[in-house]
Write a structure and sequence with these properties.
Radius of gyration of chain A: 19 Å
Number of domains of chain A: 2
Number of helices of chain B: 5
Strand content of chain A: 15-25%
Oligomer: heterodimer
Number of strands of chain A: 6
Strand content of chain B: 25-35%
Largest sheet of chain A: 4 strands, antiparallel
Structural class of chain B: alpha+beta
CATH class of the largest domain in chain B: Alpha Beta
Largest sheet of chain B: 4 strands, antiparallel
Structural class of chain A: alpha+beta
Number of domains of chain B: 2
Helix content of chain B: 25-40%
CATH architecture of the largest domain in chain B: 2-Layer Sandwich
Distance between the termini of chain B: 23 Å
CATH architecture of the largest domain in chain A: 2-Layer Sandwich
Strand order of the largest sheet of chain B: 3-4-2-5
Number of strands of chain B: 5
Order of helices and strands of chain B: HHHEEHEEHE
Helix content of chain A: 25-40%
Shape of chain A: elongated
Shape of chain B: elongated
Radius of gyration of chain B: 21 Å
Order of helices and strands of chain A: HHHEEHEEHEE
Chain lengths: 156, 159
């Protein structure tokens, strides 16, 4: 979709901060010199078009008490579709990319406990028959630039 | 940090997104049995505690002119990881920098970064510059060829 200059300014502001205020949209309208109605219309459209994936609270998975990891699998070319369907069937899988490496399927997994995490990885291996999997949980985070929603915003 | 049952209810309500009405917090507050003011204070408290990493919009960056992103993975000697991790994190082109375990011999890389550029070529140049700056010469760029899933996590959903 095409974004006009007001859309871009609006996105710029709300990527960092949405006012935590009884009337956040009126506040935004004041900042941008327009009406609350205009802001609400723009947000509705940006959400419908998928430009905005979520509006409001973005949680820190660890502080919420969840365990996360990044996994990579070596999947033969002709099995990618089928394996991806198995992996994506778990709701804790938030992101899944094909990358140009022998470890070609990369997904993030977020779950309530370490036990559940291990169980899901075992289940994926069992159902796909692919055991060549790297489980790479972050041991330290040096940087997450939140404005870049690469997916690792609610990160693993 | 222990979350109360009430906190969990609030998280469930907030993750459905801020409603597009004049008084969105009032709508959410009613759902969880709080006043608008109480919910606003709770949101501020969550932000302060870092439970809410950010109160804003999650935007798909592809729509905003960033064409290419690459995961760049680095093989860093264990004793240098802190220094190199901080150095990488200081570069504007890097949005994410994590330490993860290496799994030699298949996977020798232990520092993961995400870089952004307008083209593949630009990403490669950025990576080369980071390599020179850090002295880490064993690295690889992994470009994403397809996106199979990208969703916002829903916490504490009934199973």
């Amino acid at each position: 979709m095409t974004l006009d200059s007001m859309d871009k300014q609006l996105l710029n502001i709300i990527q960092s901060n949405l006012p935590i205020d009884p009337e956040p949209y009126r506040k935004l309208a004041e900042i941008l010199g327009t009406t609350e109605e205009d802001i609400l219309g723009r947000l509705k459209r940006l959400i419908e078009k998928g430009v905005i994936r979520r509006l409001g609270a973005i949680f820190d998975s660890r502080k919420v008490g969840y365990c996360g990891t990044l996994c990579a699998m070596k999947v033969p070319e002709d099995r990618i579709e089928e394996v991806v369907a198995v992996v994506n069937s778990f709701p804790g899988v938030t992101h899944n990319y094909l990358r140009d490496h022998p470890y070609n399927i990369w997904f993030t997994l977020l779950v309530e406990s370490q036990v559940e995490l291990e169980n899901i990885l075992q289940e994926i291996k069992k159902r796909t028959g692919i055991s060549d999997m790297l489980n790479l949980p972050a041991s330290r985070i040096f940087k997450i630039l939140v404005n870049f929603d690469l997916g690792e915003d609610d990160d693993a | 940090m222990m979350l109360s049952q009430k906190d969990i209810e609030i998280i469930r309500a907030l993750q459905e997104g801020l409603p597009l009405v004049s008084r969105p917090f009032q709508v959410l507050a009613q759902k969880v049995g709080l006043s608008e003011e109480e919910l606003l204070n709770k949101v501020r408290e969550f932000v302060k505690q870092g439970i809410i990493r950010r109160f804003g919009a999650a935007v798909r960056h592809q729509d905003l002119g960033y064409i290419s992103n690459a995961m760049v993975v680095w093989e860093v000697p264990e004793e240098k990881i802190e220094e190199i991790g901080r150095l990488m994190a200081s570069f504007d082109e890097i949005s994410h920098c994590y330490q993860r375990p290496s799994r030699p011999p298949e996977w020798p890389y232990n520092l993961f970064t995400v870089i952004h550029g307008q083209t593949r070529d630009e990403c490669e140049k950025i990576a080369a510059r980071l390599s020179r700056a850090s002295g880490i010469t064993s690295y690889r760029l992994l470009f994403s060829l397809a996106e199979f899933k990208k969703s916002s996590m829903k916490y504490f959903m009934e199973k």
